[in-house]
């Protein structure tokens, strides 16, 4: 076995262990309202002992074609480990996860777990290029017409081109519009 193949195998084993054994956790960063300096929401940030930079974990998941799996496990874990039900929670989600065919079913399952929670905000991660903006918009419209009312999607700066006129929620967080 070549060194390159050995590295790929080791990475696959590590990623599988991280996902299967849930060897990650979340920290919850407060988001402050600028006008009165009060905490108006929290953002869930994934952390993993094997990856000081969580973006590297997601890049590995992309490389191994397991991004959707890691993303939904992360979303699920963030929601089940955050116990402040009355305050909004922002969770990053990749565009490819939003358009994945199984994502609406995943949200439906989450809804039963999170029925008492209000304002779960799925913040579209800007580190993945959106390959089909029309598909993303169609998926968004489908989700907002369905019974997924506890979930909101927000777009970051480079995705806002036509979104506000289409009725997407709009937030401003510490200088970046989403």
From TrEMBL:
It comes from Parageobacillus thermantarcticus. InterPro entries: Cyclic-di-GMP_PDE-like, EAL_dom, EAL_sf. Signal peptide: none annotated. PANTHER family: CYCLIC DI-GMP PHOSPHODIESTERASE PDEF, SIGNALING PROTEIN. GO terms for molecular function: cyclic-guanylate-specific phosphodiesterase activity. Pfam families: EAL. This is EAL domain-containing protein. Residues 8-178 form the EAL domain.
